[in-house]
Design a protein that fits this description.
Shape of chain A: flat
Strand content of chain B: 15-25%
CATH class of the largest domain in chain B: Alpha Beta
Number of helices of chain B: 20
Radius of gyration of chain A: 24 Å
Structural class of chain A: mainly alpha
Largest sheet of chain B: 6 strands, mixed
Order of helices and strands of chain A: HHHHHHHHHHHHH
Low-confidence stretches of chain A: none
Shape of chain B: globular
CATH architecture of chain A: Orthogonal Bundle
CATH topology of the largest domain in chain B: D-Maltodextrin-Binding Protein, domain 2
Distance between the termini of chain B: 72 Å
Largest interface: A-B, 34 and 27 residues
CATH topology of chain A: MetI-like fold
CATH superfamily of the largest domain in chain B: Periplasmic binding protein-like II
Number of domains of chain A: 1
Helix content of chain A: over 70%
Helix content of chain B: 40-55%
Strand content of chain A: under 5%
Number of domains of chain B: 2
Number of helices of chain A: 13
Number of strands of chain A: 0
Low-confidence stretches of chain B: 15-24
Structural class of chain B: alpha/beta
Oligomer: heterodimer
Largest sheet of chain A: none
Number of strands of chain B: 13
CATH class of chain A: Mainly Alpha
Chain lengths: ~300, ~425
């Protein structure tokens, strides 16, 4: 018996080791190394001499005006696109769950933005919202609503709003698929019971549907928050951070600092500030959902 | 069994032999990174004329030329320094050299190349000055350029505006040329595609201002001087009046705007001539020197140097650099609109008859942007500061005072 379990253990180890090695070399090591870099005055000309400078990089990040601009931008982007995508996604999913015919067609149509390339979608959005773009053409020449072209992309919130619209447009399909799968798991007898109790459609949605898919909501929220903080392509393509980094987000700013100015130490510190913020937010989200669960149960 | 061992041994010996023969005859490959755009006439000349000729003259060297976007090349070099994957030779914007030199990756040519003096004497002195950092030469100049005024002839005629010669006339002209055209579309008197030093320096200098002192050690008192502030303020006022645009993400690109008669004037380099001929052959335009202010008519000196990195095969790389700055290559490149720095090539008929002859005049008075290692960062700070002014978030004086403090800190590093 004892020998058998030892053999088992050896077998398990042998099976695990290749995966663990890959995970350690390509994930754990780079993260630890980056953590070390965030405390160093990273010199581009030498891989060996990297003087330890303590918290200077972190101090530089927090005392940088632009950091606070891009940090707020990322938070606003997340606060608007995450609920936006989830509400529209859930709404579409509920509608699709109710229909019997053409449901596959509608699913495909709603999912198309998800599989469209970020670069192409961003370029199309830029074309539409350019000062000389399609939207202004329609507003001034077709509808005659204004005489002057509106400068959609040229201000901080204007540029970000366009990126947020693209984010929501592109994310609804994914949310729809996730929520549709969850909705189909909700036991029918719960709805039947609610019918007997005389609950209307809205009451059924609030008291039956939502509690039943709470796990999926939390999952989508955490994933989308991470996604929101990771927004990069659309910002880079639509505004490029213009004017003067006012529309940059954490990731585009990190990219600029590392690859255009060579400040790898600063960028490493910034990446840990970002990871910490994301972790904190995930914990808060889990806590909030748990509290509601307990409150609901009591 | 013995037979099999013998066969394996034979095969091994054969392989080795082949390897040795190949090693002896295989030429050295040098990597050359540049930013001639992939579809340009320059790139065609490089790939089809220059490199084949060089390889014919130097059969032991092969050149692997890689084209990058301008900004991408700068970033790529930065990243390649830390990953030890630098090329042998690169064509670098003159503004990048101090930064690369500070990283310690460039070869001091005057120290390492015995025939450096001979080579440098064939090239323009003003261009050679862009390669000196801390008393050593870290590159050879490859081509030079500057920007002059381009104006849309029919737009000026319709508005009855003369080509501006002074800064006051320029302000006036920019205002008069702005408004709406016959199709009801908005037009702007001036296009400026960005707010970096390359764009703003001609205004600052011609207004009599500057970015730093001549020693490039202090900015306070220079970048926030009365003249510099006046230049930035004039610029911002014209922007807010709707007389000047081009640097926003939503704006019409420069060439398209000028070619379709939406932008009346712009300050551009010799490459614009070819671009306009290609994209808008029908647009009638003229060129003139940059209008003169209190500081004179001072445009910004551009251009590229060819530099050798410390990982290079120095002998082969040096031969290639000498070839690229030699009379033949410089004359061939001059045919594509690159203003040569080789004295012999400058005397050629190609140059004398070239459409960029007016630029050669501007180069005489043009100034270079600060040749300091922190320039890229200073450039970004300048962009941020001036953006705040044009958007009305700060007054020109406030923004330039803050900028002076930032510049001082960066210059001290």
């Amino acid at each position: 018996m004892e020998t058998k379990s030892r053999v088992n253990r050896i077998q398990m180890a042998a099976l695990l080791i290749p995966g663990l090695i890959i995970f350690s070399v390509f994930t754990v090591y780079p993260i630890l190394r980056l953590f070390w870099v965030s405390f160093c005055d990273w010199k581009l000309d030498s891989m060996i001499t990297q003087p330890f400078i303590g918290l200077t990089n972190y101090r530089n990040v927090f005392s940088d005006d632009t950091f606070w601009i891009v940090f707020v931008n990322s938070i606003v982007y997340t606060l608007i696109t995450v609920p936006g995508q989830m509400m529209l996604g859930l709404f579409t999913a509920v509608l699709l769950n109710g229909i019997k015919r053409f449901s596959v067609t509608y699913r495909v149509i709603n999912y198309l933005p998800v599989v469209t390339s970020w670069v192409i979608a961003s370029l199309v959005f830029r074309y539409v919202f350019n000062t000389e773009g399609l939207l202004n053409y329609v507003l001034t020449k077709v509808l005659h609503l204004t005489g002057q072209n509106v400068r959609w992309l040229d201000s901080r919130w204007g540029g970000l709003s366009v990126a947020m619209m693209l984010g929501i447009w592109k994310g609804v399909g994914w949310n729809m698929v996730v929520f549709l799968a969850a909705l189909q798991q909700v036991p029918q007898d719960l709805y039947e019971a609610a019918d007997i109790d005389g609950g209307g459609a809205w009451k059924k949605f609030i008291h039956v549907t939502l509690p039943s898919i709470k796990g999926t909501i939390l999952f989508a929220m955490v994933m989308l928050t991470i996604g929101g903080f990771n927004v990069f392509t659309s910002i880079k393509m639509i505004t490029g951070g213009k004017p003067a980094h006012q529309t940059d987000t954490l990731l585009t700013w990190m990219y600029y600092k590392a690859f255009s100015t060579g400040k790898f130490g600063y960028s490493a510190a910034l990446s840990f500030v970002m990871a910490f913020s994301l972790g904190l937010m995930a914990i808060l989200q889990f806590k909030a959902m748990k509290n509601r669960e307990m409150g609901g149960g009591a | 069994m013995n037979k099999r061992i013998a066969a394996v041994l034979m095969a091994a010996v054969l392989c080795l032999g082949v390897g040795i023969v190949q090693a002896e005859s295989s030429p050295v490959t040098i990597n050359f990174w540049h930013h001639y755009s992939a579809q340009s006439a320059e790139n065609e000349t490089l790939v089809n004329i220059l490199i084949p000729k060089f390889e014919k003259e130097n059969p032991d060297v092969k050149v692997n030329a890689v084209s990058h976007e301008w900004a991408e090349l700068h970033d790529k070099v930065l990243v390649s320094v830390s990953s030890q994957s630098l090329p042998d030779v690169a064509r670098c914007d003159i503004a990048w050299l101090p930064e690369f030199q500070k990283m310690g990756v460039l070869v001091a040519l005057d120290e390492e190349m015995p025939d450096f003096k001979e080579v440098s004497s064939t090239l323009l002195d003003s261009a050679m000055s862009t390669t000196i950092i801390n008393g050593n030469h870290y590159a050879l100049p490859l081509n030079t350029n500057s920007k002059i005024l381009f104006y849309n002839t029919s737009m000026l005629e319709k508005a009855e505006v003369d080509v501006p010669v002074t800064m006051d006339q320029w302000v006036d002209a920019v205002r008069k040329l702005s408004g709406t055209n016959e199709n009801g579309q908005q037009t702007w008197g001036w296009n400026e595609p960005a707010l970096s030093g390359w764009n703003l320096c001609p205004f600052i200098w011609s207004f009599g201002g500057s970015l730093t002192n001549t020693e490039q050690t202090v900015a306070t008192g220079y970048v926030n001087s009365e003249e510099t502030v006046k230049a930035i303020d004039t610029f911002a006022v014209l922007y807010r009046e709707g007389a000047l645009t081009g640097f926003n993400s939503g704006d019409i690109p420069m060439t398209d705007g000028f070619g379709t008669g939406r932008y009346a004037m712009m300050l551009e380099g010799p490459w614009k001539t070819a671009e306009l001929t290609g994209a808008y052959p029908d647009v009638a335009y003229g060129t003139a020197p940059f209008p003169a202010g209190d500081g004179g008519s001072i445009s910004v000196l551009g251009g590229e140097d060819i530099a050798m990195f410390n990982v290079a095969n120095k002998d082969a790389a040096w031969r290639f650099m000498k070839f690229m700055t030699g009379e033949f290559a410089e004359t061939e490149m001059a045919k594509c609109g690159q203003i040569p720095v080789n004295k012999a090539a400058l005397q050629s008929d190609t140059v004398k008859d070239a459409p960029y002859a007016p630029f050669i005049e501007a180069i005489q008075t043009a100034k270079a942007r600060p040749t300091v290692a922190a320039w890229s960062e200073m450039d970004n700070e300048l962009n941020v500061a001036v953006t705040a002014v044009v958007n009305g978030d700060k007054t020109a004086q406030e923004a330039m005072d803050e900028l002076a403090a930032r510049f001082d800190a960066l210059l001290k590093q």
